[in-house]
Amino acid sequence: EKYVYNFNEGKKEMKELLGGKGANLAEMTKIALPVPSGFTLTTESCNRFFVEDQVIWTGLEMEINDHLKELEQSTGKKFSDMENPLLLSVRSGAAHSMPGMMDTVLNLGLNDHSVIGLAKATSNERFAYDSYRRFIQMFSDVVMEIPKIHFESILEEAKRKQGVALDKELDGNDLKEIVKKYKEVYLQETGEDFPQEPMVQLILAIKAVFASWNNPRAVFYREMHGISKLNGTAVNVQAMVFGNKGESSGTGVAFTRNPGNGEKKLFGEFLLNAQGEDVVAGVRTPNELAELKDLMPKVYQQLEIAAKNLESHYKDMQDIEFTIENGELFLLQTRNGKRTAHAAITIAVDLHEEGKITKEEALLRIDPQQLNQLLHPNFDEKAAAQATVLAKGLAASPGAASGRIYFTAEAVEAAYEKGIKSILVRQETSPEDISGMVKSEGILTARGGMTSHAAVVARGMGKCCIAGCTEMKVNEEEKIVKYKGGVLSEGDVISLDGTTGTVYLGEIEKSKPTLGGKFTKLMEWIDETKTMAVRANADTPEDAKQALEFYAEGIGLIRTEHMFFKEGRISSFRRMILAETVEERAKALNEILPMQKNDFYQIYEVMGELPVTIRLLDPPLHEFMPVKEEEIRQLAETMSLSLEELNGRINELHEVNPMLGHRGVRLGITYPEISRMQVRAIMEAALEHKSDKNSDIQPEIMIPLISDVKELSYIKAEIEDEIQKVFIEKGKSLAYHIGTMIEVPRAALTADKIAEEADFFSFGTNDLTQMGFGFSRDDSGGFISEYMNKNIFENGPFDTIDQEGIGQLVEMAVERGRITKPNFKIGICGEHGGDPASIEFFQRLGINYVSCSPFRVPIARLAAAQAAI
Ligand code: PEP
Ligand code: MG
Fold first, then answer.
1. Residue nearest to atom 9 of ligand 1 (CA)
2. Domain ends where: 203, 219, 240?
3. CA-wise closest residue to 500 among 471, 474, 459, 465
4. Least buried of 279, 304, 546, 718, by fewest C-beta within 10 Å?
5. CATH number at residue 606
6. Domain Pyruvate phosphate dikinase AMP/ATP-binding: where (predicted)?
7. What's the CATH code of the domain at 477?
8. Which of 613, 614, 743 to mutate to test the pocket of ligand 1 (most atoms within 8 A of CB)?
9. pLDDT in tens, 517-547
10. Are residues 473 and 578 in the same domain?
11. 270-306 pLDDT per residue, tens
């Protein structure tokens, strides 16, 4: 069996086997771009490594050996050579890019011999010993896990002794001394000499890369992103090129388009006289790529051409790592670049308009969940203009965030547990910080560029981030930040504008986002592609307006009970509930009627002729009762009851298991007058709107919690009688529809019968999940997370529809409903209506529309379009 592939044996389609990095290195080699030679150990070899108790078996070692020989031949260099030694980089690379794994060891192969060879080959002793000391430090850190601080303090000490400030001011002799001390540290910490044999170094490094696949950070990352079905990581072994050979060498990162806003222009950064990781690790703040044009015009032009090539080859924006060695350009990596939602839309739309991808491909390029970023607010311009600016950094990831500052991931997590919003402030971030980054509102780092760890990870998460804010001096030890004019301490509140890079003092008011341009175009394409409609769940005219701004095609659910909580209404409603006689109840209902009618009228105003589904009262009545003593006393007064009498009536409403109790249609059956009042309000408002605006409104009235067709027949007779009364009184009529929710399992099972009485179905997947699993919607959060930890559930069943179980109920009800009425209109109005994975499932079942909260409408629209492709 073959476990090692030369770069010229692979191609980009072999990601699963060679990992993303390996497959792309092979592809770049294939299309004759300047890539240093090397080979890749497959993900299957990582898998076997774990099966074989983490040892490198003889067969693999022999394969590695063969490839090394080949590499020596193709480069004309030799391991341990005292003239022109072969040095290697060793990098991990899974099929998905995955921060948290061991990343890179550079300069592998250096030892007491080859360092002399390197010095000769480059006529630069300083460079050789600097490389050697970097190698010892990196190897010790990532392979042997020796704390960095040992090495850093030796370096600091040397600089102090020489009276210099920068690493690069140390000379060859200083560095020789440092190498000696580093090796002593290694011996002290491991009990062994620093390995001199390159093959031993290589095997140790490979083992460390393999092992890092299962370190806690990598496992956490895979869990967070739901990556479960991968073999392991591949390992890429590649001949070194040097970006730190002097001022005509350098290293950098280039994006073929701007990852922040999508602009079609080479974008990136570089550092002269530096080695690969210096840019990404954010230790020095790099220069803008445009400056390279003046410094090395030929190299810049080559890079531009390579970028163009790669982009047309991959048909997507590329993130390229490059190194310049003595004026010669080498490409070390390419991958589809991470980008903000704004950039994702711009790039997808542009690529289609440039004729590079189809409209469908463009739609599939954008992650629906990522749209969330766009829909979130920015700082209110006026408020921001008046706020105190503390500093400016790099606008690394857009958005707006305010919170208290904390200096460690742990402190952020602790604050989060207490419900405190926080900003993670660090010198620079590393993969250890990811769990804290997730739980912060935003991230601020003093060092690092646009491609530093903090910037890349934050953009992926859609989290606001300012990086390289060098004006701020972060002292993590003392938990303070110094800025021009003052000091901040842990717990102080600041605000970050990730779109401009500005740091403000205190909290700033936020304003709604504006969408336009390419977003509008995207929405047009979505309309041309999707077959399912997307409506919104909205209870107020304001919600309805928001939903329309996000291109909702109607309202799929008005939860009318929410209207009763408005100022001044709740008291009438309570009196209605607590009434003991029909007259008392009628009086209270008469007070409520005009208010409900007005609500509906206003919503019709906003929605025009788009469909609007109004659900009759649903929750158990006890939910509306006052809890505070003061309110109970007031209510007793208005009802001329004693406190005891009122408390007695409230207690009668109490149910042990209210969600399975007296709610939904059951209320309408006991108190038909409530349902009658609601449909009267619905129809009177519609008639008025029709005559005022000459509109063709067709209200959709929806009955909740049906479990038997006879319930529906009963309530339908009641409300149709009331509707006829309204028509006669007003001398006018209009078309309307009466449908039902399917949210009780028994309703799903008897859907063919229920369909006989209904004009439409809408699945209440929240209740259907609650009742299908027997999990309380309100109480199950705690133990469901335990189910996820223990891998009993992959997803929360209230977030993503359980296709295997609850999904069957939906499927069955759709089928049975359509046996009775083949063209039956069927929708979804539970939370699952805004979840992309669920939407894909609903599309397969032939559902006509989904309805979700306004802020999820664009996400659901894109998911619906993708599901239709
Ligand atoms: C549902 O049960 O899915 C539903 C939409 O209704 P509610 O969430 O109001 O119970
Ligand atoms: Mg429900």
1. 559
2. 240
3. 465
4. 304
5. 3.20.20.60
6. 58-293, 294-347
7. 3.50.30.10
8. 743
9. 899 999 999 999 999 999 999 988 988 998 9
10. no
11. 999 887 666 655 567 789 999 999 999 999 999 999 9
Specify if 648 maps to a domain.
no
Of 67, 829, 832, 852, the active-site residue reads 829
Query: Relative to the alpha carbon of 615, which ligand is closest?
Result: 1
Q: Which atom of ligand 1 is nearest to 765's Cα?
A: 3
The structure tokens listed for 380 are 């209110």
Cα 776 to averaged position of ligand 1 atoms, centre (Å) = 13
Asked if residue 746 belongs to a domain, the reply is yes
What is the helix, strand, coil percentage profile of the chain, to 5? 50, 15, 30
CA 534 to ligand 2 centroid distance, Å = 19
Give the residue, out of 613, 618, 744, 800, with the most ligand 1 atoms within 8 A of its beta carbon, to mutate for a pocket test.
618
| 82 and 206 fall within a common domain | yes
Q: Are 428 and 551 members of one domain?
A: no
Q: Tell which of 209, 240, 271 closes a domain.
A: 240
Q: Predicted confidence band at 462 (pLDDT cuts at 50, 70, 90)? A: low
453 is catalytic: yes
Over residues 778-824, the pLDDT tens digits come to 778 778 878 887 889 988 899 899 999 999 999 999 999 999 999 99
Share of the chain above pLDDT 70, in %: 98
Is 598 among the domain residues? yes
**Ligand 1 atom nearest to 743, measured from its CA:** 2
723 shares its domain with 849? yes
Q: How many other CB atoms are there within 10 angstroms of residue 823's CB atom? A: 6
Catalytic site includes residue 829: yes
Which contiguous run of DSSP H or E holds residue 763? Answer: strand 760-763
Contacts of 656 (CB under 8 A, 6+ apart): none
Q: Supply the pTM of this predicted model.
A: 0.78
- Distance from the alpha carbon of residue 766 to the mean position of ligand 1, in angstroms: 5
Confidence at 716, pLDDT banded by 50, 70, 90: very high
Cβ atoms of 817 and 753 closer than 8 Å: no
Q: Is the CB of 830 under 6 A from ligand 1?
A: yes
Q: Which helix (H) or strand (E) covers residue 138, if one does?
A: helix 125-138
- Cβ 264 under 6 angstroms from ligand 1: no
Quote the CA–CA distance of 834 and 813 in Å, as a whole number: 20
767 ligand 1 Cβ < 6 A: yes
Q: Which atom of ligand 1 is nearest to the CA of 704?
A: 6
Domain that holds residue 594: 530-620+655-868
Residues 6+ apart with CB under 8 A from 479: 407, 489, 490
224, 309 Cβ separation under 8 angstroms: no
Residue 769 alpha carbon to ligand 2 centre in Å: 10
Is any atom of ligand 1 closer than 6 Å to the C-beta of 40? Answer: no
**Marked catalytic residue, from 453, 465, 689, 832:** 453
Q: How many domains does the chain have?
A: 3
Residue 428 in any domain: the answer is: yes
My answer on whether 501 and 551 are in the same domain is no
Q: Has residue 100 got a pLDDT over 80? A: no
**How far is the C-alpha of 848 from the C-alpha of 853, rounded, in Å?**
17
Among all chains, which residue has been given the structure tokens 């770069």? 7
Ligand 1 atom 6: the closest Cα is on which residue? 764
Q: Which two tokens stand for residue 796?
A: 């929360």
Kindly state if the Cβ of 539 falls inside 6 Å of ligand 1.
no
Our answer on whether the CB atom of 559 is closer than 6 Å to any ligand 1 atom is yes
413-439 b/e (C-beta count within 10 Å ≥ 16 → b): bebbeeeebbbbbbbbbbbebbbbbbb
At 720 the three-state DSSP class reads helix
Q: Does 493 share its domain with 575?
A: no
Q: How far is the CA of 865 from the centre of ligand 1 (A)?
A: 25
Residue 451 sits in the same domain as residue 599: no
Residue nearest to atom 10 of ligand 1 (CA): 767
pLDDT, mean over the chain: 92
CATH number of the domain to which 158 belongs: 3.30.1490.20
For residue 460, pLDDT beyond 70: no
